[in-house]
Amino acid sequence: MIEFDRVTVTYDGAAAPALRDVSFTVPEGELALVIGRTGSGKSTLLRAINGLVPHFTGGTLAGRVLVNGRDTKDYRPRDLADVVGIVGQDPMAGFVTDTVEDELAYSMESLGVPPDVMRRRVEETLDLLGLADVRDRPLTALSGGQRQRTAIGAALTSHPAVLVLDEPTSALDPQAAEEVLAALQRLVHDLGVTVVMAEHRLERVIQYADRVVEISGAVTGGLPAGRAGAVSTGLPADLMVTAPVAPPVVELGRLAGWSPMPLSVRDARRAAGVLRERLGDHRPISRVAVIGKEIARCNDLVVSYGNVPALRGVSLTLQAGEVIALMGRNGAGKSTLLNALVGLVQPRSGSVAAAGLDPRRTKPKQLVKAVGLVPQEPADLLYAPTVAEECAGADSDFRVAAGSCRALLERLAPDVDDQMHPRDLSEGQRLCLALAVVLCGAPPLLLLDEPTRGLDYGAKRRLVEILRELAADGHAVVLSTHDVEMVAEVATRVLVLADGELVSDGDTATVIAGSPAFAPQVAKILAPLPFLTVGEVATALERAS
Question: CB 5: neighbour CB atoms within 10 A?
Answer without folding.
Answer: 13
